[in-house]
Amino acid sequence: MRSHPLIVLKFGGSVLLNEDRLRIAVHEIYRWRRDGWRVVAVVSALAGRTDGILSKCASSGARPLAHAQAAALACGELESAAMLGLHLDRAGVPASMLTPGAVSLRANGDPLDADPVSIDIAPIVEALARDGVVVFPGFIACDDSGRTVTLGRGGSDLTALFLAHWLAADKCRLIKDVDALYVSDPARSDPAPRRYSRATFDDALATDGSIIQHKAVRLAKSHGTAFELGRINGVRPTLIGAESTEFSEIRDLPIRQTVALLGLGTVGGGVLELLTQMPESFEVVAALVLDSTKRRECEAPGLRLITTPHDALVPDTDIVVEAIGGIEPAATMALRALESGSHVVTVNKAVIAQRGDELSVAARLADRRLLCAAAVGGAAPVLERLASSPEQSFCVRGVLNGTSNFVLNQVAEGCSFEDAILTAQVLGLAEADPSRDLDGRDCLDKLAVIAGIAGRSRDASRVLEVQPITSDAAGDSPMRSRPSGRLRQVSTLHPDGTMDVRLAAVAQDDPLFDLPDEWNAAEIGWLDGRSEVVRGRGAGRWPTAESVLGDLLQLNREASQEASDVEDRTLTPEVLDV
Questions:
Q1: What is d(CA 441, CA 20) in angstroms, rounded to the nearest whole number?
Q2: Domain architecture of the chain: domains with CATH
Q3: What is the tens place of the pLDDT at every residue in 383-431?
Q4: Distance CA 22, CA 42 (A)
Protein backbone atom coordinates (compact mmCIF):
# COMPACT_ATOMS: atom_id res chain seq x y z
CA MET A 1 0.00 0.00 0.00
CA ARG A 2 1.09 3.57 -0.63
CA SER A 3 2.34 5.20 2.58
CA HIS A 4 0.07 7.90 4.00
CA PRO A 5 1.02 10.48 6.64
CA LEU A 6 -0.99 10.62 9.87
CA ILE A 7 -2.50 13.70 11.50
CA VAL A 8 -4.19 13.95 14.88
CA LEU A 9 -6.90 16.63 14.88
CA LYS A 10 -8.46 17.83 18.11
CA PHE A 11 -11.85 19.59 18.13
CA GLY A 12 -12.66 21.41 21.37
CA GLY A 13 -15.92 22.55 22.85
CA SER A 14 -15.19 26.11 21.74
CA VAL A 15 -15.45 24.84 18.14
CA LEU A 16 -18.22 22.28 18.67
CA LEU A 17 -20.81 24.80 19.81
CA ASN A 18 -23.74 22.54 18.87
CA GLU A 19 -24.52 19.42 16.87
CA ASP A 20 -24.61 21.36 13.60
CA ARG A 21 -20.99 22.30 14.19
CA LEU A 22 -20.09 18.62 14.03
CA ARG A 23 -20.59 19.03 10.30
CA ILE A 24 -17.78 21.59 10.34
CA ALA A 25 -15.55 18.95 11.93
CA VAL A 26 -16.52 16.58 9.08
CA HIS A 27 -15.31 19.17 6.55
CA GLU A 28 -11.95 19.50 8.31
CA ILE A 29 -11.48 15.74 8.48
CA TYR A 30 -12.40 15.38 4.80
CA ARG A 31 -9.96 18.16 3.93
CA TRP A 32 -7.06 16.05 5.15
CA ARG A 33 -8.44 12.76 3.80
CA ARG A 34 -8.69 14.09 0.27
CA ASP A 35 -5.06 15.21 0.55
CA GLY A 36 -4.06 11.63 1.38
CA TRP A 37 -3.71 11.83 5.17
CA ARG A 38 -4.93 9.30 7.71
CA VAL A 39 -6.82 11.09 10.47
CA VAL A 40 -7.39 10.55 14.17
CA ALA A 41 -10.08 13.02 15.29
CA VAL A 42 -10.19 13.68 19.05
CA VAL A 43 -13.37 15.41 20.19
CA SER A 44 -14.51 17.24 23.29
CA ALA A 45 -18.08 17.45 24.54
CA LEU A 46 -20.31 20.00 22.85
CA ALA A 47 -20.08 23.48 24.36
CA GLY A 48 -21.78 23.64 27.77
CA ARG A 49 -22.35 19.88 27.98
CA THR A 50 -19.68 19.27 30.63
CA ASP A 51 -20.91 22.16 32.78
CA GLY A 52 -24.45 20.83 32.46
CA ILE A 53 -23.36 17.39 33.68
CA LEU A 54 -21.45 18.96 36.57
CA SER A 55 -24.60 20.83 37.58
CA LYS A 56 -26.57 17.58 37.59
CA CYS A 57 -23.90 15.95 39.74
CA ALA A 58 -24.04 18.85 42.20
CA SER A 59 -27.85 18.72 42.39
CA SER A 60 -27.99 14.99 43.02
CA GLY A 61 -28.36 15.61 46.75
CA ALA A 62 -25.17 13.91 47.85
CA ARG A 63 -21.54 14.67 47.13
CA PRO A 64 -20.75 12.19 44.35
CA LEU A 65 -17.68 10.00 44.50
CA ALA A 66 -14.94 11.08 42.10
CA HIS A 67 -15.18 7.96 39.92
CA ALA A 68 -18.97 8.30 39.67
CA GLN A 69 -18.59 11.92 38.64
CA ALA A 70 -15.93 10.99 36.07
CA ALA A 71 -18.24 8.38 34.59
CA ALA A 72 -20.99 10.98 34.27
CA LEU A 73 -18.67 13.54 32.69
CA ALA A 74 -17.49 10.97 30.13
CA CYS A 75 -20.97 10.96 28.60
CA GLY A 76 -20.35 14.32 26.93
CA GLU A 77 -17.29 13.21 24.97
CA LEU A 78 -18.77 9.81 24.14
CA GLU A 79 -21.88 11.51 22.76
CA SER A 80 -19.83 13.91 20.61
CA ALA A 81 -17.70 11.07 19.21
CA ALA A 82 -20.73 8.95 18.36
CA MET A 83 -22.55 11.85 16.70
CA LEU A 84 -19.45 12.82 14.70
CA GLY A 85 -19.25 9.22 13.50
CA LEU A 86 -22.85 9.43 12.31
CA HIS A 87 -22.19 12.73 10.50
CA LEU A 88 -19.12 11.26 8.80
CA ASP A 89 -21.17 8.27 7.69
CA ARG A 90 -23.88 10.50 6.25
CA ALA A 91 -21.23 12.45 4.36
CA GLY A 92 -19.91 9.16 2.99
CA VAL A 93 -16.53 9.28 4.76
CA PRO A 94 -15.40 5.89 6.16
CA ALA A 95 -14.57 6.12 9.88
CA SER A 96 -14.31 4.01 13.04
CA MET A 97 -15.30 5.29 16.47
CA LEU A 98 -13.10 3.82 19.24
CA THR A 99 -13.37 4.29 22.99
CA PRO A 100 -10.63 4.48 25.68
CA GLY A 101 -11.66 1.01 26.83
CA ALA A 102 -11.19 -0.43 23.34
CA VAL A 103 -7.54 0.71 23.27
CA SER A 104 -6.79 0.20 26.99
CA LEU A 105 -6.00 3.87 27.54
CA ARG A 106 -4.77 3.88 31.15
CA ALA A 107 -4.32 6.88 33.41
CA ASN A 108 -3.15 7.30 37.01
CA GLY A 109 -3.79 9.86 39.72
CA ASP A 110 -6.77 11.97 40.69
CA PRO A 111 -9.88 10.43 39.04
CA LEU A 112 -10.89 13.93 37.88
CA ASP A 113 -7.40 15.08 36.86
CA ALA A 114 -5.55 11.92 35.87
CA ASP A 115 -2.41 11.53 33.78
CA PRO A 116 -2.36 9.08 30.82
CA VAL A 117 0.41 6.51 31.05
CA SER A 118 -0.17 3.73 28.49
CA ILE A 119 -2.27 2.65 25.51
CA ASP A 120 -2.64 -0.27 23.10
CA ILE A 121 -2.42 1.40 19.69
CA ALA A 122 -3.03 -1.79 17.68
CA PRO A 123 -6.82 -1.24 17.32
CA ILE A 124 -6.21 2.32 16.13
CA VAL A 125 -3.60 1.23 13.58
CA GLU A 126 -5.94 -1.49 12.31
CA ALA A 127 -8.89 0.91 12.01
CA LEU A 128 -6.76 3.48 10.18
CA ALA A 129 -5.61 0.84 7.71
CA ARG A 130 -9.23 -0.13 7.05
CA ASP A 131 -11.05 3.22 7.09
CA GLY A 132 -8.47 5.98 7.17
CA VAL A 133 -10.31 7.87 9.93
CA VAL A 134 -10.65 7.13 13.65
CA VAL A 135 -12.90 9.21 15.92
CA PHE A 136 -11.83 9.18 19.55
CA PRO A 137 -13.40 10.83 22.62
CA GLY A 138 -10.95 13.08 24.43
CA PHE A 139 -10.72 13.89 28.14
CA ILE A 140 -11.45 10.36 29.40
CA ALA A 141 -9.46 7.22 30.20
CA CYS A 142 -9.56 4.20 32.52
CA ASP A 143 -7.58 3.44 35.67
CA ASP A 144 -5.94 0.10 36.42
CA SER A 145 -9.24 -1.17 37.81
CA GLY A 146 -11.10 -0.31 34.61
CA ARG A 147 -12.97 2.62 36.18
CA THR A 148 -13.54 5.78 34.17
CA VAL A 149 -11.31 8.76 34.97
CA THR A 150 -10.99 12.19 33.37
CA LEU A 151 -7.88 14.16 32.43
CA GLY A 152 -8.76 17.56 33.88
CA ARG A 153 -10.29 20.66 32.37
CA GLY A 154 -9.13 20.93 28.74
CA GLY A 155 -8.10 17.27 28.86
CA SER A 156 -8.91 16.64 25.18
CA ASP A 157 -5.73 18.58 24.36
CA LEU A 158 -3.87 16.05 26.49
CA THR A 159 -5.56 13.10 24.78
CA ALA A 160 -4.62 14.40 21.33
CA LEU A 161 -0.96 14.96 22.19
CA PHE A 162 -0.72 11.63 24.00
CA LEU A 163 -2.08 9.85 20.92
CA ALA A 164 0.19 11.84 18.61
CA HIS A 165 3.22 10.69 20.58
CA TRP A 166 2.25 7.02 20.80
CA LEU A 167 1.19 6.84 17.15
CA ALA A 168 4.29 8.75 15.98
CA ALA A 169 1.95 11.06 14.06
CA ASP A 170 3.41 13.24 11.34
CA LYS A 171 1.35 16.18 12.52
CA CYS A 172 -0.94 17.14 15.40
CA ARG A 173 -3.21 20.17 15.16
CA LEU A 174 -5.47 21.49 17.92
CA ILE A 175 -8.50 23.14 16.30
CA LYS A 176 -9.67 26.10 18.39
CA ASP A 177 -11.96 29.12 18.09
CA VAL A 178 -8.86 31.27 17.54
CA ASP A 179 -6.56 31.27 14.53
CA ALA A 180 -3.35 30.87 16.55
CA LEU A 181 -1.78 30.91 19.99
CA TYR A 182 -1.84 34.33 21.61
CA VAL A 183 -0.12 35.58 24.74
CA SER A 184 -3.62 35.64 26.26
CA ASP A 185 -7.14 34.91 25.06
CA PRO A 186 -7.89 37.58 22.40
CA ALA A 187 -11.60 37.42 23.27
CA ARG A 188 -10.79 38.59 26.80
CA SER A 189 -8.03 41.10 26.03
CA ASP A 190 -8.10 44.75 25.00
CA PRO A 191 -5.96 45.74 23.21
CA ALA A 192 -5.44 42.55 21.24
CA PRO A 193 -2.60 40.40 22.63
CA ARG A 194 0.44 39.43 20.63
CA ARG A 195 0.07 36.54 18.21
CA TYR A 196 2.63 33.75 17.95
CA SER A 197 3.50 32.30 14.57
CA ARG A 198 6.10 30.07 16.27
CA ALA A 199 6.28 29.38 19.99
CA THR A 200 8.49 27.32 22.26
CA PHE A 201 6.92 24.97 24.80
CA ASP A 202 7.87 27.48 27.51
CA ASP A 203 6.07 30.25 25.59
CA ALA A 204 2.89 28.16 25.65
CA LEU A 205 3.32 27.45 29.36
CA ALA A 206 3.69 31.19 30.00
CA THR A 207 0.18 31.89 28.64
CA ASP A 208 -2.79 32.03 31.00
CA GLY A 209 -3.98 28.53 30.08
CA SER A 210 -7.28 29.70 28.61
CA ILE A 211 -6.36 28.61 25.07
CA ILE A 212 -4.45 25.39 25.73
CA GLN A 213 -4.17 23.03 28.69
CA HIS A 214 -0.77 23.45 30.36
CA LYS A 215 -0.63 19.78 31.37
CA ALA A 216 -0.88 18.86 27.69
CA VAL A 217 1.98 21.23 26.84
CA ARG A 218 4.16 19.70 29.56
CA LEU A 219 3.49 16.23 28.14
CA ALA A 220 4.41 17.39 24.63
CA LYS A 221 7.56 19.02 25.97
CA SER A 222 8.61 15.85 27.80
CA HIS A 223 8.40 13.87 24.55
CA GLY A 224 9.56 16.63 22.20
CA THR A 225 6.24 16.46 20.32
CA ALA A 226 5.80 19.69 18.37
CA PHE A 227 2.21 20.51 17.40
CA GLU A 228 0.06 23.19 15.78
CA LEU A 229 -2.81 25.33 17.02
CA GLY A 230 -5.21 27.03 14.63
CA ARG A 231 -8.71 27.38 13.24
CA ILE A 232 -10.99 25.31 11.01
CA ASN A 233 -9.66 25.35 7.41
CA GLY A 234 -6.67 27.33 8.61
CA VAL A 235 -3.49 27.93 6.62
CA ARG A 236 -1.22 29.70 9.14
CA PRO A 237 -1.45 27.94 12.53
CA THR A 238 1.03 28.48 15.33
CA LEU A 239 3.79 25.91 15.58
CA ILE A 240 4.30 25.08 19.26
CA GLY A 241 7.55 23.39 20.14
CA ALA A 242 9.69 25.55 17.87
CA GLU A 243 13.31 26.26 18.76
CA SER A 244 12.74 30.03 18.78
CA THR A 245 9.88 32.47 19.27
CA GLU A 246 8.29 34.39 16.41
CA PHE A 247 5.48 36.90 16.66
CA SER A 248 3.47 38.09 13.67
CA GLU A 249 0.68 40.62 13.19
CA ILE A 250 -0.66 38.61 10.25
CA ARG A 251 -3.83 36.80 11.30
CA ASP A 252 -5.15 33.66 9.65
CA LEU A 253 -8.73 34.69 8.98
CA PRO A 254 -11.11 33.13 6.42
CA ILE A 255 -11.83 35.13 3.28
CA ARG A 256 -15.56 35.59 2.68
CA GLN A 257 -16.25 34.52 -0.91
CA THR A 258 -19.43 34.96 -2.93
CA VAL A 259 -20.98 31.90 -4.55
CA ALA A 260 -23.58 31.42 -7.29
CA LEU A 261 -25.29 28.02 -7.50
CA LEU A 262 -26.42 26.72 -10.87
CA GLY A 263 -29.11 24.31 -9.74
CA LEU A 264 -30.84 23.77 -6.39
CA GLY A 265 -31.82 20.14 -6.83
CA THR A 266 -30.62 17.24 -4.72
CA VAL A 267 -26.95 18.22 -4.80
CA GLY A 268 -27.31 22.00 -5.16
CA GLY A 269 -29.74 22.13 -2.26
CA GLY A 270 -27.32 20.15 -0.11
CA VAL A 271 -24.46 22.48 -1.00
CA LEU A 272 -26.62 25.49 -0.12
CA GLU A 273 -27.40 24.06 3.32
CA LEU A 274 -23.71 23.40 4.03
CA LEU A 275 -22.67 26.86 2.87
CA THR A 276 -25.26 28.61 5.06
CA GLN A 277 -23.56 27.01 8.07
CA MET A 278 -20.27 28.75 7.19
CA PRO A 279 -21.22 32.44 6.83
CA GLU A 280 -17.71 33.51 7.80
CA SER A 281 -16.39 31.94 4.60
CA PHE A 282 -19.20 31.95 2.02
CA GLU A 283 -22.15 34.08 0.91
CA VAL A 284 -24.52 32.52 -1.62
CA VAL A 285 -25.71 35.44 -3.74
CA ALA A 286 -27.74 33.74 -6.49
CA ALA A 287 -29.15 30.40 -7.53
CA LEU A 288 -30.44 29.20 -10.89
CA VAL A 289 -33.71 27.27 -10.50
CA LEU A 290 -36.51 26.03 -12.72
CA ASP A 291 -39.24 27.35 -10.43
CA SER A 292 -38.54 30.33 -8.16
CA THR A 293 -41.86 29.86 -6.30
CA LYS A 294 -41.12 26.30 -5.16
CA ARG A 295 -40.71 25.88 -1.41
CA ARG A 296 -37.29 24.49 -0.50
CA GLU A 297 -35.88 22.78 2.59
CA CYS A 298 -33.07 25.29 3.04
CA GLU A 299 -33.69 29.01 2.75
CA ALA A 300 -30.87 31.56 2.61
CA PRO A 301 -31.76 35.17 3.53
CA GLY A 302 -31.20 37.53 0.61
CA LEU A 303 -30.64 34.74 -1.91
CA ARG A 304 -31.72 35.69 -5.45
CA LEU A 305 -33.56 32.87 -7.23
CA ILE A 306 -33.09 33.20 -10.99
CA THR A 307 -34.82 31.23 -13.73
CA THR A 308 -32.88 32.58 -16.72
CA PRO A 309 -29.44 30.94 -17.17
CA HIS A 310 -27.72 34.07 -18.46
CA ASP A 311 -28.86 36.15 -15.47
CA ALA A 312 -27.54 33.59 -12.99
CA LEU A 313 -23.94 34.61 -13.68
CA VAL A 314 -23.79 37.52 -11.25
CA PRO A 315 -20.87 39.89 -12.02
CA ASP A 316 -17.86 39.68 -9.70
CA THR A 317 -18.95 36.37 -8.17
CA ASP A 318 -15.94 34.58 -6.71
CA ILE A 319 -17.13 31.00 -7.34
CA VAL A 320 -19.79 29.42 -9.55
CA VAL A 321 -21.00 25.92 -8.64
CA GLU A 322 -22.49 24.05 -11.60
CA ALA A 323 -24.97 21.33 -10.60
CA ILE A 324 -27.58 21.36 -13.36
CA GLY A 325 -26.31 18.32 -15.30
CA GLY A 326 -26.26 17.66 -19.02
CA ILE A 327 -23.93 19.21 -21.56
CA GLU A 328 -25.84 22.39 -22.38
CA PRO A 329 -26.36 24.98 -21.08
CA ALA A 330 -23.97 23.73 -18.37
CA ALA A 331 -20.81 23.87 -20.51
CA THR A 332 -21.54 27.33 -21.93
CA MET A 333 -22.34 28.72 -18.49
CA ALA A 334 -19.16 27.28 -17.03
CA LEU A 335 -17.12 28.83 -19.86
CA ARG A 336 -18.77 32.23 -19.37
CA ALA A 337 -18.19 32.05 -15.63
CA LEU A 338 -14.48 31.37 -16.12
CA GLU A 339 -14.12 34.10 -18.73
CA SER A 340 -15.83 36.59 -16.40
CA GLY A 341 -13.34 35.85 -13.63
CA SER A 342 -15.11 33.28 -11.45
CA HIS A 343 -13.66 29.99 -10.28
CA VAL A 344 -15.86 27.05 -11.30
CA VAL A 345 -16.70 23.96 -9.28
CA THR A 346 -18.75 21.35 -11.12
CA VAL A 347 -20.32 17.99 -10.29
CA ASN A 348 -20.96 17.34 -13.99
CA LYS A 349 -18.86 14.41 -15.18
CA ALA A 350 -20.40 14.56 -18.69
CA VAL A 351 -19.28 18.16 -19.19
CA ILE A 352 -15.74 17.38 -17.99
CA ALA A 353 -15.58 14.20 -20.10
CA GLN A 354 -16.71 15.93 -23.30
CA ARG A 355 -15.67 19.57 -22.84
CA GLY A 356 -13.02 19.30 -20.13
CA ASP A 357 -10.07 20.26 -22.33
CA GLU A 358 -11.87 23.39 -23.54
CA LEU A 359 -12.82 24.36 -20.00
CA SER A 360 -9.28 23.75 -18.74
CA VAL A 361 -7.87 26.09 -21.41
CA ALA A 362 -10.42 28.76 -20.49
CA ALA A 363 -9.52 28.44 -16.81
CA ARG A 364 -5.82 28.74 -17.55
CA LEU A 365 -6.29 31.82 -19.77
CA ALA A 366 -8.46 33.49 -17.12
CA ASP A 367 -6.10 32.47 -14.28
CA ARG A 368 -9.05 30.81 -12.57
CA ARG A 369 -9.56 27.37 -11.11
CA LEU A 370 -11.74 24.57 -12.51
CA LEU A 371 -12.41 21.91 -9.86
CA CYS A 372 -14.53 18.80 -10.25
CA ALA A 373 -13.86 16.42 -7.34
CA ALA A 374 -17.55 15.49 -7.06
CA ALA A 375 -17.68 14.32 -10.69
CA VAL A 376 -16.18 10.94 -9.75
CA GLY A 377 -16.63 8.82 -6.65
CA GLY A 378 -18.81 11.03 -4.47
CA ALA A 379 -17.01 11.20 -1.12
CA ALA A 380 -14.31 8.79 -2.30
CA PRO A 381 -11.47 11.21 -3.18
CA VAL A 382 -10.47 9.56 -6.46
CA LEU A 383 -9.66 12.68 -8.49
CA GLU A 384 -8.01 14.45 -5.57
CA ARG A 385 -5.54 11.62 -5.12
CA LEU A 386 -4.82 11.43 -8.85
CA ALA A 387 -4.33 15.19 -9.01
CA SER A 388 -1.72 15.02 -6.24
CA SER A 389 0.72 13.20 -8.58
CA PRO A 390 -0.86 12.90 -12.04
CA GLU A 391 2.39 12.00 -13.76
CA GLN A 392 2.92 9.07 -11.37
CA SER A 393 -0.41 7.30 -11.90
CA PHE A 394 -0.32 4.07 -13.86
CA CYS A 395 -3.81 2.57 -13.87
CA VAL A 396 -7.15 2.91 -12.07
CA ARG A 397 -9.62 0.13 -11.32
CA GLY A 398 -12.76 0.73 -9.34
CA VAL A 399 -16.46 0.69 -8.60
CA LEU A 400 -17.38 4.19 -9.72
CA ASN A 401 -21.18 4.23 -9.81
CA GLY A 402 -23.02 4.21 -6.49
CA THR A 403 -26.43 3.58 -8.03
CA SER A 404 -25.31 0.43 -9.83
CA ASN A 405 -23.50 -0.85 -6.77
CA PHE A 406 -26.62 -0.31 -4.65
CA VAL A 407 -28.76 -2.21 -7.16
CA LEU A 408 -26.32 -5.13 -7.35
CA ASN A 409 -26.13 -5.31 -3.55
CA GLN A 410 -29.92 -5.29 -3.25
CA VAL A 411 -30.22 -8.10 -5.77
CA ALA A 412 -27.53 -10.02 -3.89
CA GLU A 413 -29.70 -9.81 -0.79
CA GLY A 414 -32.68 -11.33 -2.59
CA CYS A 415 -34.47 -8.27 -3.96
CA SER A 416 -35.78 -8.32 -7.51
CA PHE A 417 -33.98 -6.20 -10.10
CA GLU A 418 -37.00 -3.94 -10.62
CA ASP A 419 -37.56 -3.45 -6.87
CA ALA A 420 -33.87 -2.70 -6.35
CA ILE A 421 -34.06 0.12 -8.90
CA LEU A 422 -37.26 1.46 -7.33
CA THR A 423 -35.65 1.46 -3.86
CA ALA A 424 -32.66 3.36 -5.22
CA GLN A 425 -34.99 5.96 -6.72
CA VAL A 426 -36.97 6.33 -3.48
CA LEU A 427 -33.72 6.90 -1.57
CA GLY A 428 -32.55 9.53 -4.04
CA LEU A 429 -29.70 7.35 -5.32
CA ALA A 430 -31.07 6.93 -8.85
CA GLU A 431 -32.64 9.23 -11.42
CA ALA A 432 -36.12 8.64 -12.80
CA ASP A 433 -34.29 7.19 -15.81
CA PRO A 434 -31.33 5.18 -14.39
CA SER A 435 -30.20 3.86 -17.77
CA ARG A 436 -26.90 5.81 -17.87
CA ASP A 437 -25.93 4.25 -14.54
CA LEU A 438 -26.93 0.72 -15.47
CA ASP A 439 -25.64 0.57 -19.04
CA GLY A 440 -22.15 1.86 -18.16
CA ARG A 441 -22.24 5.25 -19.90
CA ASP A 442 -21.88 7.08 -16.58
CA CYS A 443 -18.78 5.04 -15.77
CA LEU A 444 -17.29 5.77 -19.20
CA ASP A 445 -17.71 9.50 -18.55
CA LYS A 446 -15.96 9.07 -15.20
CA LEU A 447 -13.13 7.11 -16.77
CA ALA A 448 -12.70 9.91 -19.30
CA VAL A 449 -12.50 12.43 -16.44
CA ILE A 450 -9.96 10.22 -14.66
CA ALA A 451 -7.90 9.97 -17.85
CA GLY A 452 -7.82 13.75 -18.13
CA ILE A 453 -6.76 14.23 -14.50
CA ALA A 454 -4.11 11.56 -14.97
CA GLY A 455 -2.65 13.55 -17.86
CA ARG A 456 -3.98 11.42 -20.71
CA SER A 457 -6.09 12.52 -23.63
CA ARG A 458 -9.79 12.10 -22.97
CA ASP A 459 -10.51 11.81 -26.66
CA ALA A 460 -7.79 9.27 -27.49
CA SER A 461 -8.87 6.70 -24.90
CA ARG A 462 -10.18 3.60 -26.65
CA VAL A 463 -13.16 1.75 -25.14
CA LEU A 464 -12.59 -2.01 -25.10
CA GLU A 465 -15.93 -3.19 -23.74
CA VAL A 466 -19.00 -1.99 -21.84
CA GLN A 467 -21.24 -4.57 -20.17
CA PRO A 468 -24.65 -3.28 -19.08
CA ILE A 469 -26.38 -4.37 -15.89
CA THR A 470 -29.57 -6.19 -16.80
CA SER A 471 -31.97 -8.35 -14.84
CA ASP A 472 -30.36 -11.47 -16.28
CA ALA A 473 -26.81 -10.24 -15.64
CA ALA A 474 -27.57 -9.25 -12.05
CA GLY A 475 -29.00 -12.72 -11.50
CA ASP A 476 -32.11 -11.82 -9.52
CA SER A 477 -30.82 -14.24 -6.86
CA PRO A 478 -28.86 -13.87 -3.63
CA MET A 479 -25.15 -13.34 -4.19
CA ARG A 480 -24.33 -15.98 -1.65
CA SER A 481 -25.11 -18.44 -4.47
CA ARG A 482 -22.04 -17.10 -6.30
CA PRO A 483 -19.08 -18.91 -4.70
CA SER A 484 -16.57 -16.88 -6.73
CA GLY A 485 -17.39 -13.61 -4.99
CA ARG A 486 -19.61 -10.56 -5.22
CA LEU A 487 -20.77 -9.09 -8.50
CA ARG A 488 -19.45 -5.60 -9.17
CA GLN A 489 -19.55 -3.15 -12.04
CA VAL A 490 -15.79 -2.70 -12.43
CA SER A 491 -14.43 0.26 -14.40
CA THR A 492 -10.79 0.21 -15.49
CA LEU A 493 -8.39 2.69 -17.04
CA HIS A 494 -5.55 0.47 -18.26
CA PRO A 495 -1.87 1.47 -18.44
CA ASP A 496 -2.08 1.81 -22.23
CA GLY A 497 -4.94 4.31 -21.93
CA THR A 498 -7.71 1.92 -22.96
CA MET A 499 -10.78 1.61 -20.75
CA ASP A 500 -13.62 -0.79 -20.09
CA VAL A 501 -16.65 -1.32 -17.86
CA ARG A 502 -17.33 -4.97 -17.04
CA LEU A 503 -19.40 -7.03 -14.63
CA ALA A 504 -17.07 -9.18 -12.56
CA ALA A 505 -17.26 -11.36 -9.46
CA VAL A 506 -14.62 -10.08 -7.04
CA ALA A 507 -13.06 -12.25 -4.33
CA GLN A 508 -13.10 -11.49 -0.62
CA ASP A 509 -9.50 -10.23 -0.60
CA ASP A 510 -10.24 -7.76 -3.41
CA PRO A 511 -10.46 -4.08 -2.32
CA LEU A 512 -13.71 -3.85 -4.30
CA PHE A 513 -15.36 -6.66 -2.30
CA ASP A 514 -16.50 -4.89 0.89
CA LEU A 515 -18.62 -2.11 -0.62
CA PRO A 516 -22.10 -1.98 0.94
CA ASP A 517 -25.03 -0.02 -0.46
CA GLU A 518 -23.92 2.85 -2.72
CA TRP A 519 -20.26 2.84 -1.69
CA ASN A 520 -17.53 3.40 -4.27
CA ALA A 521 -13.87 2.46 -4.22
CA ALA A 522 -10.93 2.88 -6.57
CA GLU A 523 -7.55 1.20 -6.58
CA ILE A 524 -4.91 3.50 -8.02
CA GLY A 525 -1.73 1.90 -9.32
CA TRP A 526 1.39 4.08 -9.25
CA LEU A 527 4.49 3.86 -11.41
CA ASP A 528 6.61 2.86 -8.41
CA GLY A 529 4.63 -0.38 -8.13
CA ARG A 530 2.58 0.52 -5.08
CA SER A 531 -1.18 0.91 -4.92
CA GLU A 532 -3.63 3.09 -3.05
CA VAL A 533 -7.31 2.42 -2.32
CA VAL A 534 -9.83 5.19 -1.66
CA ARG A 535 -13.37 4.49 -0.46
CA GLY A 536 -16.55 6.42 0.28
CA ARG A 537 -20.23 6.71 -0.50
CA GLY A 538 -20.55 7.29 -4.22
CA ALA A 539 -24.08 8.65 -4.58
CA GLY A 540 -26.64 10.72 -2.76
CA ARG A 541 -27.04 14.32 -1.65
CA TRP A 542 -24.60 14.52 1.23
CA PRO A 543 -21.57 12.62 -0.11
CA THR A 544 -21.71 14.64 -3.34
CA ALA A 545 -22.29 17.91 -1.48
CA GLU A 546 -19.36 17.13 0.82
CA SER A 547 -17.10 16.66 -2.18
CA VAL A 548 -18.28 19.96 -3.67
CA LEU A 549 -17.67 21.71 -0.36
CA GLY A 550 -14.18 20.19 -0.28
CA ASP A 551 -13.43 22.05 -3.52
CA LEU A 552 -14.96 25.26 -2.17
CA LEU A 553 -12.94 25.10 1.04
CA GLN A 554 -9.80 24.46 -1.01
CA LEU A 555 -10.49 27.66 -2.95
CA ASN A 556 -11.11 29.49 0.32
CA ARG A 557 -7.78 28.31 1.72
CA GLU A 558 -6.01 29.43 -1.43
CA ALA A 559 -7.64 32.87 -1.16
CA SER A 560 -6.71 33.12 2.53
CA GLN A 561 -3.14 32.08 1.80
CA GLU A 562 -2.86 34.60 -1.03
CA ALA A 563 -4.19 37.40 1.17
CA SER A 564 -1.77 36.43 3.95
CA ASP A 565 1.15 36.35 1.53
CA VAL A 566 0.30 39.84 0.30
CA GLU A 567 0.18 41.11 3.88
CA ASP A 568 3.36 39.20 4.67
CA ARG A 569 5.23 41.21 2.05
CA THR A 570 4.24 44.45 3.77
CA LEU A 571 4.97 43.41 7.36
CA THR A 572 8.18 42.03 8.83
CA PRO A 573 7.54 39.47 11.58
CA GLU A 574 9.37 40.05 14.82
CA VAL A 575 11.65 37.17 15.80
CA LEU A 576 12.90 36.70 19.35
CA ASP A 577 15.54 34.09 20.15
CA VAL A 578 14.99 32.87 23.66
A1: 37
A2: 6-175 (3.40.1160.10), 181-254 (no CATH), 257-371 (3.40.50.720), 382-540 (3.30.360.10)
A3: 999 988 877 778 999 999 999 999 999 999 999 999 999 999 999 888 8
A4: 12
